[in-house]
Amino acid sequence: FALLKNTRMLKAVQKNATKGDPESVISAIDYYCRHKEWAMNVGDEKGLILDSVLTEVNPSTALELGTYCGYSTVRIARLLSPGSKLITVEFNPAFAAVARQIIAYAGLQDKVTLVEGPSGDLIPKMKARFGIKSFDFVFLDHWKDRYVPDTKLLEDCGLVSEGSVLLADNVICPGAPEYLKYVRNSPRYESRYYKSNLEYTKVEDGLEKSVFLG
Ligand SMILES: COCc1ccccc1-c1cc(O)c2[nH]cnc(=O)c2c1
Ligand SMILES: [Mg+2]
Questions:
Q1: Of 170, 205, 208, 209, which one is the catalytic site residue?
Q2: Is 199 a catalytic residue?
C-alpha cells in the first residue's frame, strides 16, 4: 500500500494540475497530502521558507539530496534563473521514477538532473560527471544520518565554497541532532534555525540554514 502512495500522488498531479504550470503541481501535491494521504514532502509551510532562502541566494548551481517525489525539486527549479541548474539525488528507484514524471509534468526537466543512487557514492563524482565547480545552494532532505557525512564529503570534494548555503529539512522532526551540533559548533559555518511545522501537521519541525565561510 505504502509503495503505491507515490503513484497515487502522481495520479493526483496529472488529474488536478495543469501541464507546464509548476505552481499548480505544488498546489495539487499539497492538497492531496493535506486532505487525502500524508507524505514527506517539505510542504507548503516550510516550502515558503525554502522559497525565501532560494530567492535570496539565487543559485546558479544547486544540489538537492533526497528527491522523493520531486515536490521540493519543483519548488527549487521554478525559482532558478535561466541557465541555472539543479542536481537532485534519490536512492530509491520507485521514488525517482515518480519524481521524473512530476518534474516533467511541471515542465522543469531542462533545469533538473535527477541522479539515482547513494549520495555518499555520487557526491565525489559530481565535479567530473557534471563539471560542477561548487554548489551555491544545497538542500538536505534525505536520511538524517547522512547529513553530517555528506556535508563533510561536500567540503572534502571542494563542492562548497565561501558563501555556499546549506538548508537542512527535519532538523527537529525526525531530527538531526548530530548535524545541528556539527554546523552550530563549527567555526566554518554561520547557522540559523527557522522554526516551522512538520509538513501538513501542527508538530514542530524546522529548517537550519548554514552559510559556509570557507
Ligand atoms: C519516513 O518517515 C516519514 C516521517 C514520519 C514522521 C515524521 C517525519 C517523517 C519524515 C519527514 C520528512 O520531511 C522527511 N524528509 C526526508 N526524509 C525522511 O525520511 C523524512 C521523514
Ligand atoms: Mg523532509
A1: 170
A2: yes
**Digit-coded pLDDT (tens) for 124-169:** 999 999 999 999 999 999 999 999 999 999 999 999 999 999 999 9
Nearest atom within ligand 1 for CA of residue 199? 13
C-alpha 113/C-alpha 207 separation (Å) is 24
Q: Catalytic residue at 144? A: yes
**CB 66 less than 6 A from any atom of ligand 1:** yes
| Residue 134 · residue 163 · CB < 8 Å | no
ipTM: 0.99
pTM for this entry: 0.98
* Predicted confidence (pLDDT) per residue in 70-112, tens digit: 999 999 999 999 999 999 999 999 999 999 999 999 999 999 9
Cβ(173) to ligand 1 under 6 A?
A: yes
A 10 A CB-CB count for 49 gives 18
